[in-house]
């Protein structure tokens, strides 16, 4: 029977819970300031963004509303293609609204560039992006991200919403996985 504790599958902690919370507090203060006189709608992208949405919104002190989208990219394996299918659309009409997309990670940037152009076609007052993590490849696709929690190196990590085979999202830190996990 494999060890049920997440910690036994980890090799190296890349970001601690404290580092994540500290950075979130900084970003939340900037978002508070940016939307002080505006009615902001946070749009979380399921599933990975659940953690950042919960923690970011509670670190904010201004009012906000929340909605969710679920999307699936038509990729081959782990490769993102940029062609995106909406599995669950917003419940909210965003026309004239100030929208802040909340993501866990931007890797190639293809998902977000599709999502943002889709949202813009609905004529919101503004669309901005906050992502907790960003990979180096994102620079190649010009997605204008206003708030980035952390730039990560090009290695596979899990935790704080990021999964491997559906697991590890509930890890409070971000870490690399031991080789035995993949075998
Ligand atoms: O920048 P890209 O290369 O397009 O990749 C980024 C997308 O990948 C992740 O979602 P994922 O498909 O893993 O779904 P999940 O949140 O349900 O894990 C992430 O939440 C983004 O939506
Ligand atoms: N879980 C996970 N998903 C990713 N998508 C792009 N990079 C990563 C990563 O490092 N971990």
Automatic annotation (TrEMBL):
The keyword Cytoplasm applies. InterPro entries: HGPRT (IPR050408), Hxn_phspho_trans (IPR005904), PRTase-like (IPR029057), PRTase_dom (IPR000836). One of its GO terms (molecular function) is glycosyltransferase activity. Keywords: Cytoplasm, Glycosyltransferase, Magnesium, Metal-binding, Nucleotide-binding, Purine salvage, Transferase. Its main location: cytoplasm. Pathway: Purine metabolism; IMP biosynthesis via salvage pathway; IMP from hypoxanthine: step 1/1; Purine metabolism; GMP biosynthesis via salvage pathway; GMP from guanine: step 1/1. Its EC number is 2.4.2.8. Residues 18-164 form the Phosphoribosyltransferase domain. It is found in: Cytoplasm. Its cofactor is Mg(2+). It catalyses: IMP + diphosphate = hypoxanthine + 5-phospho-alpha-D-ribose 1-diphosphate; GMP + diphosphate = guanine + 5-phospho-alpha-D-ribose 1-diphosphate. Belongs to the purine/pyrimidine phosphoribosyltransferase family. This is Hypoxanthine phosphoribosyltransferase. The lineage of its organism: Bacteria, Bacillati, Actinomycetota, Actinomycetes, Propionibacteriales.
